[in-house]
Amino acid sequence: MFEKLKEMAQMRQEAAKIDVMLKEQRIEHTGAHGKIKITMNGKSEIIDLTIHPDLFGDTERLPTLIKDTVNDATQTAQKQMAKLMAKFM
Question: What is the pLDDT of residues 43-72, one digit of tens each?
Fold first, then answer.
């Protein structure tokens, strides 16, 4: 039983290390022909969002362009993190 508790403690430590690593990871993605730039961490949290001023006048398309860029960035982040996590498995 002591061994199982020890293993669980080690797993918690590894999970904590992975969590820190994911928060520190940075993924940059551009969309809308380079006019929207998103930086995310490994937990798919948006760290930075830059929108070129030319897009502000296009109020019909702007929400769709942002949504598409965020979704693409999230998929890119998930793929990169899956590769990174595979190293720990």
Answer: 889 999 999 999 999 899 999 999 999 999
Domains and CATH numbers, the chain: 16-45+58-89 (3.30.1310)
Calpha distance 19→9 (Å, rounded): 15
- Give, in degrees to the nearest 5, the angle at Cα 73 between 68 and 76: 130
Q: Spell out the SS3 assignment of 14-61.
A: HHHHHHHHHHHCEEEEEECCCCEEEEEECCCCEEEEEECHHHHHCCCC
Compute CA distances 20 → 16, 17, 42, 70, 85, whole Å: 6, 5, 9, 22, 13
Query: Whole-angstrom Cα distance, residue 63 to residue 60?
Result: 7
